């Protein structure tokens, strides 16, 4: 399945934001993060997503997934 133009624009926009945040003039916190240091944040977000799924909360699930347009 080929990604849509909109999906690619969104993905490329995300890549630009990440490059800016991790660049020389970017956010000091973002620049020092590693896969390991981000692990607790990923676990927390996954837990919140599962909680929204378990409670059958569509709006909460969309919020956790960052899918505001699905509400």
Automatic annotation (TrEMBL):
<protein>
    <recommendedName>
        <fullName>NTP pyrophosphohydrolase MazG-like domain-containing protein</fullName>
    </recommendedName>
</protein>
<dbReference type="GO" id="GO:0046076">
    <property type="term" value="P:dTTP catabolic process"/>
</dbReference>
<feature type="domain" description="NTP pyrophosphohydrolase MazG-like">
    <location>
        <begin position="33"/>
        <end position="66"/>
    </location>
</feature>
<dbReference type="GO" id="GO:0046081">
    <property type="term" value="P:dUTP catabolic process"/>
</dbReference>
<dbReference type="GO" id="GO:0006203">
    <property type="term" value="P:dGTP catabolic process"/>
</dbReference>
<dbReference type="Pfam" id="PF03819">
    <property type="entry name" value="MazG"/>
</dbReference>
<dbReference type="InterPro" id="IPR004518">
    <property type="entry name" value="MazG-like_dom"/>
</dbReference>
<dbReference type="GO" id="GO:0047429">
    <property type="term" value="F:nucleoside triphosphate diphosphatase activity"/>
</dbReference>
<dbReference type="GO" id="GO:0046052">
    <property type="term" value="P:UTP catabolic process"/>
</dbReference>
<dbReference type="GO" id="GO:0046061">
    <property type="term" value="P:dATP catabolic process"/>
</dbReference>
<dbReference type="InterPro" id="IPR011551">
    <property type="entry name" value="NTP_PyrPHydrolase_MazG"/>
</dbReference>
<dbReference type="GO" id="GO:0046047">
    <property type="term" value="P:TTP catabolic process"/>
</dbReference>
């Amino acid at each position: 399945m080929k990604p849509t133009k909109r999906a690619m624009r969104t993905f490329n926009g995300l890549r630009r934001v990440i490059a800016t945040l991790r660049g020389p003039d970017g956010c000091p916190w973002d620049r020092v993060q590693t896969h390991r240091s981000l692990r607790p944040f990923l676990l927390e977000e996954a837990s919140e997503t599962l909680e929204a799924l378990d409670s059958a909360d569509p709006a909460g699930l969309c919020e956790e997934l960052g899918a505001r347009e699905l509400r």
